[in-house]
């Protein structure tokens, strides 16, 4: 009887877990895992996305990408450069805002909301808004004030277009990073800071020797998020510059999109996406391992 009761309870627990986890797991398999596996298969074919037959070509797509596809290499170099600059600037702004708004300011709740709002605006909409600002708004300000900064061809030159995308990305994502940093700062024990101040520690010493080491897990999360977001940038890029001028600001995501949906080379486009996935996975894994190690050392 006891054994039968235990088995009944065990199956009841299994069914309970399945009822909660099952639907989510099913959707995850259907939406993520199955398409990913199919993508790996199609990356070894020359499928055009229309034909019912996909010709098997083996590693030909990968060899072509790594040896002769200069456009993909250029887009990868641009994306890597953008990732490095955008990650640094976004986290610096986010952390600075968090330090400012963690202080006892009367308007801090309002300011937190204001700085976070850009993150809830869709990337395409945000890109078109800033495109109007760069093209029309800055030009009008330049004519009125004569300041050279506003007269620059922000989206018409390779260098300024790059910085234009960085500015908009940082403006959008910094508020999100700010919220994570604020949550970490609020977990710091104030008694430690007060004791350090009594011992004569300066604000810089408090920041570098106490606050930052204690909130390193927040840096791990924020760096992971910003690296992955910057690598995968698409909507801001395509709405601001469309990859121009002359494909100088074309990200890897845009290159994959053009290869698959404009050139109808789904096999080649899928191979590019698989390579891109591996690169992003390597970068983020290395970053997490390094920052996690620093957490332990701290």
3D structure, described in words:
- There is one protein chain.
- This protein has helices at 2-42, 60-67, 70-101, 108-120, 123-145, 148-151, 158-185, 190-198, 203-214, 216-231, 235-240, 252-262, 266-297.
- It is mostly helical.
- It has two domains: 1-35; 60-297, Orthogonal Bundle (MetI-like fold).
- α4 packs across α7 (158-185) and α10 (216-231) packs antiparallel against α13 (266-297).
- The mean pLDDT is 87.
Brief summary:
The chain is mostly helical.
Give the topology string: H per helix, E per strand: HHHHHHHHHHHHH
Low-confidence stretches: none
Report the radius of gyration as a whole number of Å.
25 Å
Which range does the strand content fall in? under 5%
Estimated structural class: mainly alpha
Helix content: over 70%
Named at the architecture level, the CATH assignment of the largest domain is Orthogonal Bundle
Counting structural domains, the number is: 2
Total number of beta strands? 0
Mean of residue pLDDT values:
87
CATH fold topology of the largest domain: MetI-like fold
Largest sheet: none
Number of helices: 13
How far apart, in Å, are the first and last alpha carbons?
55 Å
């Amino acid at each position: 009887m006891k054994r039968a009761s235990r088995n009944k309870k065990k199956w009841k627990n299994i069914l309970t877990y399945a009822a909660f986890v099952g639907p989510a797991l099913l959707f995850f398999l259907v939406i993520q895992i199955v398409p990913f596996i199919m993508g790996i298969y199609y990356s070894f074919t020359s499928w055009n996305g229309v034909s019912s037959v996909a010709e098997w070509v083996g590693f030909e797509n990968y060899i072509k990408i790594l040896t002769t596809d200069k456009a993909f290499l250029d887009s990868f170099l641009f994306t890597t450069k953008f990732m490095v600059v955008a990650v640094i600037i976004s986290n610096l702004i986010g952390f600075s805002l968090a330090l400012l708004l963690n202080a006892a300011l009367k308007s801090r709740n309002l300011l937190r909301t204001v700085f976070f709002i850009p993150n809830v605006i869709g990337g395409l909409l945000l890109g078109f808004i800033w495109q109007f600002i760069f093209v029309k708004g800055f030009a009008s300000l330049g004519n009125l004030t004569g300041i050279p900064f506003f007269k620059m061809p922000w989206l018409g030159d390779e260098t300024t277009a790059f910085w234009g995308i960085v500015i908009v990305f940082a403006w959008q994502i910094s508020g999100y990073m700010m919220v994570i940093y604020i949550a970490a700062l609020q977990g710091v024990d104030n008694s430690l800071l007060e004791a350090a101040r009594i011992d004569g520690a300066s604000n810089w010493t408090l920041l570098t020797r106490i606050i930052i080491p204690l909130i390193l897990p927040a840096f791990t999360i924020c760096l992971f998020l910003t690296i992955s977001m910057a690598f995968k940038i698409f909507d801001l890029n395509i709405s601001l510059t469309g990859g121009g001028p002359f494909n100088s600001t074309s990200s890897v995501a845009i290159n994959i999109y053009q290869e698959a949906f404009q050139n109808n080379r789904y096999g080649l486009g899928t191979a590019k996406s698989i390579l891109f996935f591996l690169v992003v996975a390597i970068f983020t894994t290395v970053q997490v391992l390094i920052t996690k190690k620093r957490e332990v050392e701290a």
